[in-house]
Design a protein that fits this description.
Layout lengths: L12 H34 L15 H33 L6 H14 L8
Helix pairs in contact: 1-2
């Protein structure tokens, strides 16, 4: 390993692997938010007589606008499924990575050099 003090400190692959699990949690939070957002639109869809649309943009109807909203939110949920599947595929080889002993020792030396030295006083 080089003694270059400007080189980046390598991350620990197992830490990165664990961080991917956190991404799952965030995906599920977004998925839950989309579900919560869709539910009121189903209520609106059931009562189109209670809705109107403005005259900005292309002409549409409340029924069409509501259908587009619900359809796009469903597509967003499907994209989350694809993101989750891609992360699953990334995690498989990520779980196999580790630093060599030499790289790990070099990393520890770099971290030690960054820590401020504690001066002892009496």
């Amino acid at each position: 390993m080089s003694d270059n003090t400007n080189e980046p400190i390598l991350p620990i692959p197992s830490d990165l692997y664990r961080e991917m699990a956190g991404v799952y949690d965030r995906i599920n939070q977004v998925r839950d938010a989309l579900i919560r957002l869709r539910e009121p639109y189903f209520d609106l869809e059931a009562t189109p007589q209670s809705l109107a649309v403005d005259n900005l943009g292309e002409p549409t109807t409340p029924t069409k606008a509501t259908a587009v909203v619900l359809g796009e939110l469903l597509i967003a949920s499907a994209y989350l499924d694809r993101v989750e599947a891609a992360i699953d595929r990334a995690r498989q080889p990520a779980n196999r990575l580790k630093l060599t002993d030499q790289a790990d020792q070099h990393r520890e030396r770099q971290l030690a050099e960054q820590r401020p030295r504690t001066e002892r006083t009496r």
